[in-house]
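User: Predict the complex.
Assistant: Input components as received:
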Amino acid sequence: MRDNLRRGAIVAGTGPVGLVAALALAREGVPVTLVGERSESSSGRTVALFDDSIRLLAELGVWQEIAKSAAPLRALRIVDDTDNLFRWRPLTFAAAEIGLDAFGCNIELSALNAALRLVAQNVPGIHIIEGLAAAPFFDADRAGCSVAGQRLDAELIVAADGQRSPLREAAGITARLERLPQWAMTGIFRHQLPHENVSTEFHTREGPCTLVPLASLDESRGHQETSSLVWMVRSVKAKALGALDDEAFSLAVERRTHSILGKMQLAGPRGAVPLAIAHLGSIRATRLALVGEAAHAFPPIGAQGLNLGLRDAAMLAALAGEALSEDRDIGAADVLDAYQDARANDIATRSAAVNLMNRSLLSTLLPFDLARGLGMAALDLVGPLRRFVMREGVAPRFGR
Ligand SMILES: Cc1cc2nc3c(=O)[nH]c(=O)nc-3n(C[C@H](O)[C@H](O)[C@H](O)COP(=O)(O)OP(=O)(O)OC[C@H]3O[C@@H](n4cnc5c(N)ncnc54)[C@H](O)[C@@H]3O)c2cc1C
C-alpha cells in the first residue's frame, strides 16, 4: 500500500527517451520530477521513427509540432556493396506492400528534443530541474538523489541517462559496454537528385552507409532536396574522414553512395559517434527502472534504438499508471518485475538481430557471407517472409 505522500517518479535524463518517459508518466497521473541538462546542440543526427512511435508522440501531443519537419519513408532499399561471393541484387521494401503509406518518418534529433521539451515544460504534472542527478540512493521504501543543491526523493527513479548510465552503475546493475571497432559519421546534405522518400542502405565491410530522406530545406527559397547520413566506418577511417573539410567530406559521401543522389553538399554540422554494444544483467533494481540507451545499446542499423526506447517508456508508464490507479506503490518490486518481463523479449530480439547483422558485415568468413546472401535472396523471393520482416521492423508483435 502506498503511503499518503504521493511522491511519484524522478526521471533522470533529458534525451528523447527521458522526455517521453516524463510525458507518458505524467499522462498517467504520476507526478514527475525531470532532471537533466539542457542541450540544444545538433550534430547532424536524425532519427527514423516508425508507426508505433509516431502514434505515441501524437498521443502525447508532440507529433503535431514535429510533423512539419518530418519526411515520410515510403521505401527502404538495401544494396550489398561488399565483395561477398554470394552477393544478391539490391532489395527494395515498399511500405505499400504491408498496406502502409510510409514505414515512418525521419526527423532531426535536435528538433525532436526541442519539441518534446517545449511540451514537457507546459505539463503541470512535470517539474523540470536543470542539472545532473548525483548521489542517488535506492532504499526499500524510497529512492532519491541530489540535483542543483536540492535533495529529491520519490517512489521510483527512471534512469534515462544514456549508454554509460551513472544511475545504473550506482544501483549496482551488472553492465558491460563492448566498444565496437566502428564509428558512425553523421550529417545532413543537400543533393541534386530527388530522394523520392526512399532510404538507401549500402552494406559495406565496415557496416552500413545509409542515406535517409529528410523534408526539403527552406521551401520558401525554393525546393532543396535533403537527406541525412549515417555512415558506419572503422575507427581509422573515422579519423581520416573527420580530418576532411566539408567539401572533401561531401565528395567522399557522394562517392561512397555511388552518386545515387547526384552532387552532395553538407548543409549543417556533422558528427562522429563511437559505437558500442551494452550487455546488461537486468533493466531494473530496487526502485530503479532503466529506459532507452541506459537499458540497451547497439549500432545504428535498421533505425531500432530510439523506437525501442520509446516502447520502454510507454510500457513503464502504463504499469506505473496501473499501480497508481489501484493506489499501489509505483516503485514496488512487482511493478518493476512486470516491466522487466514485458520488455525482455523486445530488447533481446532487436539487440540480437542488429548485432548479428553488424558482425556478419564485419566478418569475411564464407559461412557469414553465404548466410547473408541467402537471407537477402529469401527476402527478395519469399513475399510472406518479406512482409513479416517489414511488419516486425516497423511495429513489432513477435518480439514482445
Ligand atoms: C548515428 C545514429 C543514428 C541513429 N538513428 C536512429 C534511428 O534512425 N532510429 C532510431 O530509433 N534510433 C536511432 N539511433 C539511436 C537513438 O539515437 C538512441 O537510441 C537515442 O537517441 C537514445 O536516447 P536516450 O534518451 O536513451 O539517451 P541519450 O540521448 O543519450 O540521453 C541521455 C541523457 O542523459 C543525460 N544524463 C547523463 N547522466 C545524467 C545524470 N546523472 N543526470 C541527469 N541526466 C544525465 C545525458 O546528458 C543525456 O542528455 C541512432 C543512433 C546513432 C548513434
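The longest strand covers residues 175-191.
Let me know if you want any component modeled separately.
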